[in-house]
Structures are given as C-alpha cells and as structure tokens.
C-alpha cells in the first residue's frame, strides 16, 4: 500500500527539523510525504529540498502562499499528478506501481481565520463532486475540530467553526479513517500553565477507499520537533508487523553492557521524551547485535546442549554402570565441548 506521512513541521530552515523529516521518511519507508508550514523562502527551496530527500520528486507552488504545502514522493514506487493546487489544499492522483492502483490524495492546510476556512470547505465539497468511484484520502491540518471532546483546555467559542467543519464532512461524504496513537495532535506549548491541546490534524476517506481497504488505519505520532504530530499511514494492517525491542538477558552480565548503554544514552536527542527514548533504543540494537556475535552462535549452542542432554539420557538408560565414561567419550567424538563451556 501507499506509505504516506503528513506533518505540520512548523518551519524547515532549522537543521533539527530537517533531520526529523529525514528520520520520519526512513523509519516508515515512506513513498509520499506532505510538509505543512515550511516557512522557506523561494530562493532557499532547492537547497532545503536536496538536503531532505535528494532523490525524490517535489511539488510546491510559490505563485500563491507557496510555503504552506510541500509534497514529495519517491518515483521508484509511485507516480504523482497534481490536479489542483489551492491556497489551502493540493489535490493529486497517485499511482502505486506495485499494486497497479490509483488513488486520489488531497493534502489540507486550513487557514487560521474562520472566514478564510470557508473557502477550504467549499473547495473540498467541489472536489467531492469530481471524485466519482475513485478511492479518495483527505488529510492534514484542518485548523478545526469536530467536537469539544477534541479539545483540552480553554479554547473560547469555537461552536461555529465546529458546525461548519461537520457540515463540510457531511456534504463531501468523507469518513474518519481509524487512528491510533496520540489523541490530540497539537499543543500550544504554553509555559504559563495555560496548556491547550486540540486534534487539528486527521485523515479522512470516502466510502470507496473504506471498501477497498477496510483494515487500514493511521498512526498519530508524538510531535517531535514541531507542536503538531506527524500522521503516518503505512500499509495494510493485516501485513504490518510490530517491531519490538528485544535483547538477550545474558548480555546484561557482560562488563561492556553498561558502557554501551551509557555511550548511547548520553547523546541529546531533539524531540519529546518518548521520541528520544525510542531513537536511543533503536541505536542500541546494532550494539547489542555485535555483542551477541562476540558471544558465539547462541542458537547453535542451544542445539548442542539439547543434543548433549538427549545423548546423556540415552546412555543412562543403556548402561547405568558405565554411563559417565561412555558419556564423556561420546561428547568428545561428536560435539565441540569448548563452545558449550565458553
């Protein structure tokens, strides 16, 4: 399926924001990414884009407020045709090579002002008429919530904004795509105790999409370097495998264990605490893998030990009087006892 991410990055001029975007693309093996609120001047576009994903194709329209929505895709996996570039959305057709499937994808970045967002709602309603029987995904930062359960903290009167957003969804026939992860996608990062959380970012689909991929869902990640969470759609959940962090307990007994953990843990990671922990655990994986190799082939040693036990049981049943002598002779002939004792 199409591995997609949409993220309000809140600026791409800073290096830590650029690193976070590259990490996101690599971690989830993305084919398509949309970046909102890039704040990059037009004369810096090429330099920033080449430093992010140099081999990918890019689209950005600086004829209007072009630093609002950037999209990029890996043309080894997908083809993208831009159908409509508006000030608050980019609408495109995406062809997935491997699946021979074509879908419509609309990236949204809603205006802050209520009156300006009305143009977005009408634009989505007009697009819905043209979609026909094609699968359609609409996602991004809508700068609006659907109900008060998507707000935590004092937010003022937002009833009119909620009503207009709900009316747009009703007229377009869009459905919420199942989501896991963070409930709120934006935080005001207040330092005076007046914290405000909202679910401003989401993915919506039409009924054709839902019928085609009924088990698909997206993940709302921790915000990382932005005040918004990245939204990641990755494959069909029936084929998704959860990657767990594992290590063999015996490695903790090695004298180099604590030194290895300390060398990774002392490096500062930009982002939320949970993101920092996740990245450090990922960095420890190759370290533990190398330590495991230095201890020999654990799987082979287990097989040898199992064989050793089986032979011992057979010999004891065959000749209890000479069991110890026969056992030692057999081990010397058939097993590398040095591996068992190391």
From TrEMBL:
Domain Endonuclease/exonuclease/phosphatase span(s) in chain numbering: 7-228
Protein name per the record: Endonuclease/exonuclease/phosphatase domain-containing protein
MF terms (GO), sorted A to Z: catalytic activity
A Pfam family per the record: Exo_endo_phos
Tree of life domain: Eukaryota
PANTHER family: BNAC02G09200D PROTEIN (PTHR33710), ENDONUCLEASE_EXONUCLEASE_PHOSPHATASE DOMAIN-CONTAINING PROTEIN (PTHR33710:SF64)
